[in-house]
Amino acid sequence: MSAATVLHQIVEYCLIAVVYDAIITSAVTVFHQLLIRRPLEMDVTPRKCTKIVTLHEHSAKTYREIASVVGVSLATVSRVIKLKQQTGSVSPKRKGKCGRKKKTTPRDDAFLL
């Protein structure tokens, strides 16, 4: 075997080792995110809204850090803080007439009572 062939094989092994290391690092990162990070929830409870506002007002945390701590998305943190600044409250206001429509008329209600 010539020196060039041996050198070529060493370079190949080093490249394989680098690629293998990158694959392992990526896999570990993905597993870490799946196992350690809490899943993000679709709806935000009033308790989480209060926690978001409290962390924003009384700590130097960024929106991203608050989202990570509370377990919500960055957009949710931004929306809750914006709602608090605009309305002074974190509870959403119902718009219009919500809920199920009445099946009885006021006349039926009077008759039944």
UniProtKB/TrEMBL annotation:
It comes from the Eukaryota. Residues 86-113 are annotated as: Disordered. Residues 92-104 have a biased composition (Basic residues). This is Domain-containing. It comes from Podarcis lilfordi. The lineage of its organism: Eukaryota, Metazoa, Chordata, Craniata, Vertebrata.
